[in-house]
Amino acid sequence: MSWRDLLSLEVGIPLAIIAVALLIALEVARMTRHRHVAAVHTAATIATLVLLVLIVARFVDKLV
Amino acid sequence: MTPTLVRRGELSPPPPQVHGRPIGADLPDAAIVIDATCALLSACTFAILVVQSDVSVRAPLTLLFVLFVPGWTLARLFGAPASVLSAIGSVALSIAVLTILGQSLVLFGGWKWYPAGLVLTGGCWLAGSWSALRHAARDVPRPVAPLAFSPAVPDWIISVSVNSVLIGNALVALGINRTVDGNFGVLGLVNVLSPLFWMGLILLVIGLVIVCAHGSRWAWLNVAALVTALHGLPGMLEPNPRFNVAWVHTGFADHIATEGTLLRFVDARFSWAGFFAGGGLLQRLTGTDSLLWLVRYAPLFYNGAAVILVGLLARRFRATEPQAVIAAALFGCLNWIGQDYFAPQATAFLLYLTIVTVVLYAFPAAPGRGRRRWLTTLLRAAPDNHRGLDGRAAVAVLAACYLLVVAMVISHQLTPGILVSATLLLVIVNSTRLRVLPIFVAVVFLAWLSYAADVYWIGHFDDLTGSVGEVGSLVTQNVSARTTSIEPGRQIVLRARIGLALLTWGLASISIAVHWIRRRTPIALVCLFVAPFPMLVLQPYGGEMALRVCYFTLPPAAIMISLLVVPGARTQTRASTGSWVLCGAAIALLTPVFVAARFGNESFESFSNADVALSRRLYDVAPDGATVFFAFAQSVQSYDRFGDVRFRGLPGGTADEITDQLTDRLQKSPVFVLLSQSQEAYGTYSLSRSKDWMQDLISELIATGRYRVIAELGRGVLLQLEQA
């Protein structure tokens, strides 16, 4: 498995779905003042950042 | 604090209110009726789909179903009250469901539309029936004094409203009937409309102002009639659906309906195909050959929905009923921009407006209580004591908002950017507590752009990024290039457009300044007004970005203008009477300017019967793989066999040079040349060519001896290039 495989749809789409789901969970947790809001916040931040890194890498990879 | 009007359990928190009226209790008794009607509609649509019946009511019934029932059923499952906001939210939610379902079927479902349709209609039937029975079994809370805070409306006011609408509509209809359809000329519709039409409009405006001045809700009837007369005008007047791009969009939907695939390498719009996939699904569910039947009155639908949302948004910002009504009427009279046809951007605009309205109603966060208190102090924000939703209801509404965002992102490439900008500003000024929403929109947008729209940006990266920050180029493309015509009549139309845009922005800015001085800045409205402008600096979008900015700034601008010019107090003083007279005169004067600006292109954006017949003849004779050349894109095109019959612009040069270039193409595919009346009008009025430029071109092409005349209808002609 090369690093380029990380930029493929097979990795990106599930990660995007996870990141988006975690963002929704975060908003819900904030709204309901859930006790695990900090944990959800951390997970959503990590997933979103990883996704953004992959998106930028994919942009660069396709254009260079 | 104003007491609640609805009797509820003692432990229940008071519902969110606007001016004493609970948001969710406007239509309490209507809920069960709507539930039952939706269940019945779902059952009928399900039955029609099961037997694949071709009854004439299939298309309208299915359209009603897809535009309302899925959203309403979902909303009621989570206990949404029967209110105007719920109803309009249901429309947006239904469109989102259709869009996401269509796109999913194309991408992952092998375009199995039939089982999907059965599940959708059957599911709505079951869920709707259960919901109707559940709510009917409950003790429905009834309003104790539904209009206790509104002044009693005298009977004569209702009579003024109804009669002005009846007589005004009759005059409008008669005026349209007496208007000579045909050559609209350089000024478009404003030049040809019968005086009776204008009399009808004036009567509607007089009725509107009189009823409004007495604070009655009946004024909405006049607004509905005014919007119908203005935005339904070409649909009622012209023999065929207008605007070439709308025809192309039906071709996209038709391609997806019949093939179940996306032609992402053929057209960039297939990278954001949610709207078209939803259209394709609708076409199959309605059992029609095309969605052209929707094109004619699509602007009326989009503007009608937007007008309701503008009214709701105005009420959210402490506007009185008359101010909300006038804001809605102003939106109808100022929306000359023409982005409300059968198109993804019109749908995305509707979703955008619904999202921001719902966010501001359900998830407010009072300005001044956040961490950036200095900002709200600086902006002199008006106090906002509006209460939002909590608990399960809030989670359900939030989920619905996110569904709308996804539908918007997969349908249109620009609107998510404006939504990010708007929600970010709302978060910064602490007007909403949804701090994750802008991040969510941005992440979904970037993910879609990166993984699903890569075909587009890989090929157009320079186009996308080349103009960032080039203000001179942006002004040239957005304004100068659009106002090049030297035709005096054309200049009137173009100046009317620029004038209306500047008037809107100018009055809205004055309103902001006045409210700031009074320390009552409607800060969320200002955010919505400012939000689209950054897009203007980022991308010219082929010269259309200024139009989009105008479009998205219009709802907050209309509300702010209304807050500025409409008297807030309900007492009848001499000053307020004078203001109402001025207001009425201004709206009445605005209508011809609107018609000139909005329908000034009608000479080349409408299509005569000859143009349509010529195009149908083309599809009769053109084999798959044929290439059709036209002088300008302002022509009936691409509504059928999209991908099999391609349209291209005619190369420049003399008739011999053109023929030589087309001959090269002839080696690959049959070549046709389509020159229609709408193209002739575009060249004459928009590009200031001579009146006979197209007839001269036709004569020169035929004189080369290489073309066979397939059809000649009106002033248009269909030619086929033959081998030498």
Molecular structure report:
- The complex is a heterodimer of chains A (64) and B (724).
- With 64 residues, chain A is mainly α.
- In chain A, 80% of the residues lie in helices and 0% in strands.
- Chain B has a five-stranded mixed beta sheet with strand order 4-3-5-7-6, sandwiched between helices. Chain B has a two-stranded antiparallel ribbon with strand order 1-2.
- The interface between A and B is medium-sized, with 24 and 25 residues.
Descriptive key words:
heterodimer, A: 64 residues, mainly alpha, 2 helices, elongated, B: 724 residues, five-stranded mixed β-sheet, two-stranded antiparallel ribbon, disordered N terminus
Termini of chain B, distance in Å? 86 Å
Classify the oligomer: heterodimer
- Total tally of structural domains of chain A: 1
Main sheet: strands, sense, barrel of chain B? 5 strands, mixed
User: Span from first to last CA of chain A?
Assistant: 21 Å
Number of helices of chain B: 30
Structural class of chain B: mainly alpha
Mean pLDDT of chain B: 87
Number of strands of chain A: 0
Strand content of chain B: under 5%
What structural class should be given to the helix and strand makeup of chain A?
mainly alpha
Shape summary of chain A? elongated
E-strand count of chain B: 7
Main interface pair? A-B, 24 and 25 residues
